[in-house]
Amino acid sequence: MFDKNKRCISRHNIPHHAAADTGCYAYKNQKKQILAVAAFQLHGSTDTHYGKNPKTHRIQRAHQTFVTLQKSAFQQFLFQVEQEKQQAGSQNGRSHIGEILEHFWRMDAKKQIPDTAASHCSGNSEYVDAENIHVAPNDHYETSQAMIVSEDGYHFDNWKDKRKIIPVVMDEETANRAHTRDPKVWKDGEHYYMVLGSTYKEQGGRVLFYRSKDAVEWEYVNQCRSSSFGRILECPDLFEANGEYVFIGSPMSVTEDGLEYAHQAMCTLADYDASTCEMTLKQEMQLIDHGMDLYAPQTNIDRDGRRVMIAWMRMPKEVENPESLPWRGMMCLPRVIEVENGQICFRVHPEVEKYFDKKAEQLPDEIHPSHNDIPVQMYYPEGSYDIPCAMPYRLKAVLKEGQELDIGGYRLWIEDDRVRADRSRVYKGIEGYRLTGNTPKLGGRYELDIFVDHNLIETFVNGGQYVLSHVVYGV
What we know:
With 475 residues, the protein is mainly β. The chain has 2 domains: 9-351, Glycosyl hydrolase domain, family 43 (Tachylectin-2, Chain A); 356-471, no CATH class. It has 4 helices and 32 strands. The protein starts with 8 loop residues before the first strand and ends with a strand.
């Protein structure tokens, strides 16, 4: 159904304090060039000032590239930090979990906002403060979609090769002129298809469908609105898994209970007709991750045809490290998406399984089962167990109702037929954020596969039936 061998997908991910937002997806054309489709947007920033001369300051951004090329597996993961980030005193870092992903992902940061930021970054926006281009007065901005061509998928000339392919949409019945972004492109038969996240008058999210014969000239075809899409829908994705269509997206303002985060990554099964681009949701949207820190997931197909997802783990504060500059922001482990008995599952990728291949003879002191009869096994990468308190490591445990596992202050236990988690002891001094999480009811089966790193704990329940992940500090 999908172009498994010739498509490459890339998404720009920007830290919470950056002022420019670029969603970018790429695919390979018949000339074996890499075509990237992007949504450009300029918006205000209220929590960070970028120095005395914002016109020449380089935006701090992480450029995540998630790639599948013809006759290749995932491209190598590489996280590069720009020199100007160091000069600014802040750095996007990588946890040790990042080293696990070296077989999969490539990340780099290199983009400059010029004096003419309005024309280069925000399509047709004319509302830019000349004294601070990182602020759009009164949040007045517009978005368009653009394409850039690369010969190898790694090198993009943002100045020479970028072209607009979908201008700012002025008709609200079609799209919102400001909040239309995050293109996802795939090829099906003789046509290319694109989905975009948008909103209707900022009152309800929607998905827009476009179609093209050459990936250059695009026509609007259809849209799907749902109350499940929140106020604005971001990062839409549509694909097949085990004969079912799966829709994932990030609706905004869906959990407005006074705690962060109000915007969540969610998924559901869908019916989809490619001839009309008509999509209807078959179920209510469900959380992709029940820790509710995960956001903006993206998927692609690996060399073995598996649909694989990676996503951003939101962090409320920087990680202080005396040996390096502070950093903030990381990605979850790659997860294989499968549909089983009508449920969307997120499983541990086989390459991650291979990485944790050494079994520990005993548990470290920081792991405390509440009962002596709880079976807990620990696995670690080769060569790391000789280091005291080495991370990452993997725990496998089977719990019963009323039993608990304490991992360096992070608590997992079974109550009311659910896996519950509490990070309050490893999330101290951070106000306004959720400290607990739980899965739906599980029917009496509680098999936990837990990946532990310094700042991230990911718990796969019952082989990926549900996942509960939390950002932590001080495990």
